[in-house]
Every structure is written in C-alpha cells, then in structure tokens.
Amino acid sequence: MVEKFDCLYCRDPLQRKKYVHKGDYHCCLKCFDKFCANICMECCKPIHVDSKEMHYKNFTYQDEPWHAECFVCVTCSKKLAGQRFTAVEDQ
C-alpha cells in the first residue's frame, strides 16, 4: 500500500511538486507562505521559502525575521546582510 503524500493544510497531493518538509509534515509552497512563513519586520510580507532570510535579535532579545534585501541602514539604505553594523537605539 502506498502512503498518501499530501499537503498538511490543503491536502493537495505533493507528488512531482515543490514542497517544504517541516518536522513530521510536508506542505506545498502556497500553504507554506500562508501558514508557516515568517513575516518580514520591514515590509510585513511573508518570507518565501526560496528567499534569503536573516534574523536579528533586537534590544529586547526578540528574534526578528527580515528579508535580506529589507535589512538596510536607516541612514543611508545600504544593505546590511552579511555586513558588520551597530544598532543605535534599536535602529
């Protein structure tokens, strides 16, 4: 007997499709974006599974997710992903 291989959320079959494996379950990319993806602190949009995601612990030590392209200097807009930087008053 063949075990069913469906999305945890929408129950669509995942054979021959891209999917995300999280723990003991699988979900399609559409459901991942809707139910599982982190939300970027800057643009407030889901961070897609194929996007570069970075995390920054703010001054209260909460782990904040960001799109790599959204994590920029508030003064000059230079991208900070992979760069050394200093936070001043949590900016």
Automatic annotation (TrEMBL):
GO terms for molecular function: metal ion binding; transmembrane transporter binding. Keywords: LIM domain, Metal-binding, Zinc. InterPro entries: Fhl1 (IPR042997), Znf_LIM (IPR001781). Gene3D superfamilies: Cysteine Rich Protein. Residues 38-91 form the LIM zinc-binding domain. GO terms for biological process: muscle organ development. This is LIM zinc-binding domain-containing protein.
